[in-house]
Design a protein that fits this description.
The structure is a single chain. The two termini are about 25 Å apart. It is built from 6 helices and 6 strands, in the order αββαββαββααα. By secondary structure, it is of the alpha+beta class. The chain has 2 domains: about 90 residues, no CATH class; about 70 residues, no CATH class.
């Protein structure tokens, strides 16, 4: 539910439907199901801040502190309202975030940063290459690692770029924000993709 689209008045009360047994259809809201859902929390500027539980995200939305910008197909029902389970929520007020150290260098993080595109041929990059090989003094850092296809990685081996006449189309760097609750992990929710590109 996009609260902004409804004028910022919050969730609209809806009378829940009753099944033939007389029980309300509230499967999504029962037990700890919502607590297990992970939701991407954005700052008012649309920058990723954290990954929170579905319960926490719903509290922020119902309290009017955040708006849902991407929702799932399920909903949470109570006797007085129905609220879609969010996938991404955005804070209504900007929160100043103190400087955070870059995330740890991981294969998943490098592939995500480079959009799984080989830095040398622009093909599908499924491996990680050290621009300056470790055997030549290179370190394992965001600035020295790029996504790479198997073919280019094998061809480059332990050589330097100038020895092959290759060059990088970009300067590798750490993501602008650190690892916020798994934002840069391999199992990031596909629904978060439009916002992770700016992280």
């Amino acid at each position: 539910m996009d609260i902004a689209a409804s004028g910022g008045r919050g969730p609209t009360p809806v009378r829940p439907a009753r099944s033939h047994s007389g029980r309300r259809d509230s499967d999504a809201g029962r037990g700890g199901v919502v607590t297990l859902v992970r939701v991407l929390l954005l700052n008012a500027s649309h920058e990723p801040l954290a990954v929170v539980t579905g319960r926490r995200a719903l509290i922020l939305v119902v309290a009017g502190k955040a708006e849902c910008v991407a929702e799932r197909s399920s909903a949470v029902r109570s006797p007085s309202l129905v609220v879609a389970v969010p996938a991404v929520v955005r804070l209504r007020r900007y929160v100043r975030v103190p400087y955070q150290t870059p995330p740890a260098v991981t294969r998943a993080g490098i592939l995500r940063r480079d959009l799984r595109r080989c830095a040398y041929c622009a093909g599908r990059g499924d491996t990680v290459d050290h621009v300056v090989p470790k055997s030549r003094g290179g370190d394992h850092s965001w600035e020295n690692c790029v996504a790479c296809c198997v073919r280019c990685n094998t061809r480059k081996a332990d050589r330097l770029l100038h020895e092959l006449g290759w060059s990088l189309p970009f300067v590798p760097a750490a993501p602008r924000r650190g690892v916020f609750g798994g934002v840069w992990s391999e199992d990031a929710d596909p629904a978060w993709k439009p916002w992770l590109g700016a992280a």
